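Thread title: Can someone regenerate the structure for this chain?

I was given the following input by a collaborator and told the matching structure tokens would be attached. They weren't. Posting the sequence so someone can regenerate them.
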Amino acid sequence: MKRTTVILLMFLGYTTLGAQETIARFKYEDAEKAFVAGNYQECIDNLDEAEKLLGKTAPNILHLKILAQYKFFEQDPYRSYEALETLRHNCSTYLSNYDISGLEEKYRDVYDLGNQLVEFPSSREEFDNVIKNVFLKYIEAIGGRKTLEKIESIFISGHVKQEKVGSWQYEERKIHGKSALSFFDEKKRKITTKWVNTAQTPFVYYTGGKRNKRILEHDMEGMLEGQLMKSLFPVLEWIGLLEDSHYTFALKPNQGKDKNLIQIIVTYQDESLPYLVVVYSFFNPETYLLTGQNTVYYPKDIDWQIQKEDYLALTKISYSNYLDVGGALLPMNKYVEQYRLGQNQKKHIKSIYKYTASKIILNASVEVSDFE
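Best answer:
Regenerated them for you:
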């Protein structure tokens, strides 16, 4: 009787094991299909389940998992240090255990991928300093921290053309915490002044020189400047904000037409705001000058990485023609596109401006009345 029972248990064990191996094979086949379809997370999930069913990994499973993980890594190399280390560990495991006849092609795949990871940070500290170093190189490129910190005010004058509307002269004044942008007609009569106080209300407009003040408490663009423009050179502040829990920093390859640019994404969120503020900054990898900056406001209840069109507001700025002004390298040309979310969830252009500066003066005399 005992012998019969033992045989029965062994049979049931073999049957269960056989069923698990069959299901694991199905999971692997599903993972292959997901990989071909570009669903890399689904691929990895199926492979994880296959490993769980088998109680271990296998050459084909680990090979496909490495390929899928690398696809994710390729899209966003600095998403997380853990992802980089996991990929490195899996490559090392494969190369250490599966130098087997018949697997030469797969072995070569993993060997090549492992070699490509050498150029990325080898420690957590190096990884965390990558974004900081981009900001530091930008600061050095435009004059250095010591030079920039001595600048107490900036005065800019020049010509601005608004597409489909007209052209004006403009003056822009900046001091720490405040910025005023004034437009003038051909007789130098002030048309409009836009004033920003970063510590208080987002926006105040004076129109027609009559001081009929209008406060826009919910203006999205004003809220951006209120949160991020803490100095004349926001990048000086961003280095200190790398550890601030309200800000998330990420470095990604640019997916646009200028794929060689360095792209840093800064996400700001606060419990008091119903949306996320996301700033995309683009740096020239040769000069480390800022070439562009896109700012988007996303509702908090959506995944902004997926539904990129579902925004509240979008401002795109391109910078060019950097010139040395008193030891600081500043852009003379600025191209601005502003959008707002329109009807039926479709964007519509609010305005397009092209600013051309003819004069920039640093540490000019700026009075409080300039902002009143």
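The longest strand covers residues 347-362.
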